[in-house]
Structures are given as structure tokens and as C-alpha cells.
Specification:
Helix content: 55-70%
Distance between the termini: 38 Å
Number of helices: 5
Strand order of the largest sheet: 1-3-2
Oligomer: single chain
CATH topology: Multidrug-efflux Transporter Regulator, Chain: A, Domain 2
Shape: globular
CATH class: Mainly Alpha
Number of domains: 1
Largest sheet: 3 strands, antiparallel
Order of helices and strands: HEHHEEHH
Length: 83
Amino acid sequence: MVRRARQESHRLYRIGELAEKAGVSRQVVSTYCMYGLISETDRTPGNQRLFDESVARRIRLIQDLKCRYTLREIREIFMRDRR
């Protein structure tokens, strides 16, 4: 049982799977990558982007923040939090 939970927590998602998991479109995922709000976790041998569960959570956070802030402001908030 614990082993399965660990495997699921390390699962990587392709962009379409991530978009579905986070409840957004593929275009939104691409836009967030372009703005530097999210980044891929890894790449496939065919160079497709892969994302982990933490990226889906971050997308949902960004969606919540969009009610009050622009994407540029959200990026600035995230950058301040890194320091």
C-alpha cells in the first residue's frame, strides 16, 4: 500500500495529462511555462516535457491568485518567495 502511494507521488505527467489534472487547458500550461511560473520536471527521450504533481498544485494556486493579480504580479510574488 505505501509502495503504491510513493509510486503515484513520483508520477510524471505529459502536458495534456497535467492540464487535465489541474483543470486547465494545454495552452494555459504553455503560457505559465512561458511566463516562468512553472517549469518541467524532466523530459522524455523524445524531448516532450514532463511535470510532477507539485506543478499541478502550483497551477491551481496560480488559478486562485489570478482573481486578484496579473500573471506578471504572480511571477513577482513567486520570485520574492525564492529569496
